[in-house]
Each structure stands twice: as C-alpha cells, then as structure tokens.
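Need residues for this backbone.
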C-alpha cells in the first residue's frame, strides 16, 4: 500500500498466534538507532507479539533499514506526521495486541529474554505493567526502579513513571482517548496523570529491568525545557482544580525539605523550638 510522500506495508505472518503485545517503534531520521532497536526486538526469545514501525518520512536512510528487516516487521509506515504523538497514535490505531509498548528508535530491551521473563508464565489483566528503566547517558548507565506501590495523583503532579518501561493495556486508549497531539513533549505524562492519577487505573509492578533508554530524545533536550514546562503547566491547570493544586504545592514544598523536617521532628527539643516560633508568629 503506497501513499503520497511515503509507503505503508502490512504483513500478517505472525498473526496465526495470539498477539499479547504490540511493540511500537517511532522514528525520524535516526537510522542507526532504529537498527539497534529493531535488532533488540527481533532478538527476543518471546514471540507472542506484533511489531509496528512508524517512520516520519525520514531522509537519512531509515527507510532502507526498515526494508532490510521488513520480514521481521508486521506493519511499517513511512509518511509525514505532525509529531511524535501523532506517530504513536498511528501505531495505537493499528495495534492488535492486548498491551502496547513504545520502544522508540535508539532504545532497546535490556536483554533478549525480557519479554519472556514478563509474559511467559503470567496472564495479566492489569491496566499497566511497569518495570525498571535503565538510563543510558553515553558514558554510564543508571537504573530507575519502579515505585512498587499504588500510585497517587501527587506522583504525577510531582513526576511520572517511565513510559518506555510501561506496558499499556490497549483498551485504555479506547476508554480514555489517544495521546493529546496538541502537546509535543508531555502527552504521555498527561495520559498517565489522567488514567492512573485521576481514574485510579493502577499498574502491576515487575522488578525487571526492561529497557535501555537513550537519554537524548526531545523530552530530555535542555533546549526544550521551557516548552516542556509550559505544556506541563497547561495540563495541570486543565486537569487539577486550583484548590487542590494549592495543597499539592504545599506538599511539594514539604517534600523538597523533608531531609531537614523529618530529622527535626524526630528531635523533640528542636521540634519544640520550631513549634514555639510557629505559634508566636502565626
């Protein structure tokens, strides 16, 4: 199937088996990273997945990489898009798996048996499956562990979970909507805030290192920090009432200084002095 400005290819070679997982890779002009990601996917020892590659009409040889591995890719598209979340939404609309995982170009599975370790012995029904992310800084790596507890709205007011290490049940996008394409950086965070923070669709946590995350994407670009902050403020103002935000601002202030406050509260003498001055000046 060919479109103006690009191509689409659909292959159904793996659909004789039950598709548990749809792995979606989004790419734009990152041929080297794309090949690393594809090799990571097709090297998995677990095979109950479909693989979807969404390319934004790259001009750097990415389409040659896609064609090179086309026999291992169920669906691949190369055509112009309006941004990363538009591309991710294309993948979601095509996905047939129970869960979706976004493994974008440059990112890779930590090992060949990651998916087997997660899905081989367990039939999940949870809205999300969240594991650990290994951040690749180029000269070193560091692991971000999952929280391993029920998540609250504050978790998303103050931070997020790692979407590269999160399997998302496909029907959640039907229930709550696709990624907000008016946002260019924080739409994945907005989805988690709404679905987990506001609607309590809690994840199942697995203590498994899932993905090597290449720390050079748009969401981690310091030049984009101002835009990131503006988008985040827009989402918070739309989703969280002002009265609730005031409480959370105070809670965040406490969190920022809890390394001082908690030891002080444990010291009766110091805590007594603080309470005295609070009563004196309030």
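Answer:
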């Amino acid at each position: 199937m060919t479109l103006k400005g690009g191509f689409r290819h659909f292959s159904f070679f793996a659909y004789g088996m039950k598709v548990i997982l749809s792995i979606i890779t989004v790419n734009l002009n990152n041929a080297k990273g794309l090949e690393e990601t594809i090799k990571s996917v097709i090297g998995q020892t677990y095979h109950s997945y479909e693989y979807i590659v969404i390319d934004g009409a790259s001009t750097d040889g990415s389409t040659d990489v896609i064609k090179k591995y086309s026999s291992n890719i169920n669906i691949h598209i190369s055509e112009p898009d309006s941004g990363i979340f538009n591309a991710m939404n294309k993948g979601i609309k095509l996905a047939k798996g129970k869960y979706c995982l976004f493994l974008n170009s440059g990112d890779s599975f930590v090992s060949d048996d990651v998916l087997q370790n997660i899905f081989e012995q367990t039939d999940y029904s949870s809205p999300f499956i969240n594991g650990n992310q290994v951040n690749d800084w180029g000269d070193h790596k560091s692991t971000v562990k999952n929280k391993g507890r029920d998540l609250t709205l504050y978790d998303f007011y103050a931070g997020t979970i790692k979407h590269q290490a999160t399997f998302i049940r496909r029907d959640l996008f039907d229930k709550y909507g696709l990624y907000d394409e008016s946002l260019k950086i924080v739409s994945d965070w907005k989805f988690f805030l709404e679905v987990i923070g506001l609607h309590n669709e809690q994840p199942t946590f697995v203590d498994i290192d899932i993905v090597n995350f290449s720390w050079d994407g748009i969401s981690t670009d310091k030049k984009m920090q101002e835009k990131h902050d503006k988008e985040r403020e827009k989402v918070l103002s739309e989703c969280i009432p002002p009265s609730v935000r005031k409480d959370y601002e105070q809670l965040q202030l406490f969190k920022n200084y809890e390394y001082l406050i908690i030891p002080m509260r444990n010291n009766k003498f110091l805590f007594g002095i603080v309470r005295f001055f609070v009563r004196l000046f309030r």
